[in-house]
Structure prediction request, 295 residues.
Amino acid sequence: MIIDGHVHIFSRRFYQFWADEARVSIEQAADKTGAEIPATDDTVALGDRWVAELDKHGVDRAVVFSSVIGDGGAIGQIVAKHPTRFSGFFFLNPTHQDAMQRIRRGLSEAKLRGACLFPAMHHFYPDDERLHPMFTLLDKADAAAFIHFGMLKIPIQQKLGMSPTVDLKYSNPIRLHSVANQFPNLKFIIPHFGAGYFHETLMLGSQAKNIYVDTASSNSWISLYPGLTLETVFEQALEVFGPDRILFGTDSSSFPRGWRNDNFKRQQEALASIGASKVDQDKIFGGNMAAVCKL
Ligand SMILES: [Zn+2]
Prediction:
């Protein structure tokens, strides 16, 4: 079973948010990004399109992420319509006043299985005490905390000509260690093997058994390390995390590009070339995420 653990749903609301931020019309945003912006706010139709896309590539399931505040309910509708194809995580800005309420709604109303946090985008440290009640809620619901560390590109912000707002001082995964210790039953997912903080992510993973990594995207951060290859990254991740805490993902997001088969093939090739067993590959490409999402 193949489960893509990292797919962003870019709804019309997502594009509208960024168009508003950049003070351009949604038509201008479509021109500048080259993206096919959904014609309506009906996210269910977009979910149907993603099901067809997964079918085309023989992918069994995907974990879909809302990508703008307020889209969690829409993701819930997609998941409710296709419960055998999707699990959902919601995008969260924990610095917002209503963050607790949004978590409750995401978990109990939309029935989503995790929250996605971006410290460098929203300017907070993951060990900020304000986040403790939020991690407590996720922990009680047996949901996951997906936290992006390392390099963070927001392509739509660049394409719309906006000034960058990402602040990397918030992006070191070591700041998650105390939290991982305080919430030993909560699963923390670090995407892209730490997106540049590979060494720190390995350190954290070796000491905290509730830290998971995802393999998503083309992992272009690897070029920061002379001589490092995706093969070596998988080898070291398997050494430190073992085969049960590595989650396959593609970081697919928009149409017309659709599902990132190129990222899937590259990861398959890397795992085959280092001689990863079929059993371990099956875990990475789906079994582990099935366990995280309680399927
Ligand atoms: Zn992503």
Observations:
- The first strand starts at residue 3 and ends at 9.
- The CA atoms of residues 206 and 240 lie 6 Å apart.
- The beta strands are 3-9, 61-66, 86-91, 114-117, 144-147, 187-190, 211-214, 246-247.
- The longest helix spans residues 43-57.
